[in-house]
Amino acid sequence: IDNVARRFPRQTRFLQRLETRPRMSEFSVKATIISRYAFTTVSCTLVNTGSEAREGIFEVQIPITAFVSNFTMIIGGKIYYGEVIGKDWLRADQETYSRPPDDSRESQMETFRASGLIPRKVEATFILHYEELLRRRLGKYHYTVSIRPQQ
Fold first, then answer.
1. Cβ atoms < 10 Å from Cβ of 136
2. Alpha helices by DSSP H, the chain
3. Which one of 14, 37, 59, 63 is least enclosed by Cβ atoms within 10 Å?
4. Distances in Å between the alpha carbon of 128 and those of 24, 62, 83, 84, 139?
5. Is 109 within 8 Å of 63 (Cβ atoms)?
6. Would you state the pLDDT for residue 105?
7. Using CA atoms, how far apart are residues 43 and 127, in angstroms rounded to an integer?
8. Residue (of 80, 77, 86, 150) closest to 113 by Cα position
């Protein structure tokens, strides 16, 4: 009986290593630029090949000047629409808050993250639409997309 008690923790660690996250089967980015205004759609499809429900995480970096216009999850054929909320609820004293000037790439991006429980043997699609007004620098408009799916 004492040997079984000693083996049990090792077996649970081994089973935890066997757990699989949903795998990414498709990732696409579509951008349309009209009159210095960029519309970007990021789509990611995750497939849960496991024997039980797993959490699928959608994480993407978007420019800090962009705003999310729509977010949709399609899990097992059922559509879930996201509610877009302004950034002002994050900080009540938005007028007094100022960011020090910094030109590094990381400070120009923010992370959008969403997750959903994906049932076993089902695929889930995450679709993010965001818009951005492009700024002119040195007489040219620059558009940058950060593709780091991080799944």
1. 9
2. 2-18
3. 14
4. 16, 10, 12, 11, 30
5. yes
6. 47
7. 4
8. 150
CB atoms within 10 A of CB 148: 10
Within its chain, how far is the Cα of 87 from the centroid?
17
Placement of tokens 């757990």 in the chain: 19
- Cα 105 to its chain centre, rounded Å, is 18
Q: Which two tokens stand for residue 119?
A: 């049932």
Q: Mind listing the pLDDT tens digit for each residue in 100-129?
A: 444 554 568 888 899 999 999 999 999 999
Specify the CATH architecture of the domain 21-84+108-150.
Sandwich (2.60)
38 contact partners, CB below 8 Å, separation of at least 6: 31, 32, 66, 131, 132, 133, 134, 143
Name the CA radius of gyration of the chain, rounded.
Answer: 21
Tokens of 19: 């757990």
Please give the C-alpha separations between residue 73 and each of 88, 95, 133, 148, 149, in angstroms, as whole numbers. Answer: 24, 34, 26, 19, 16
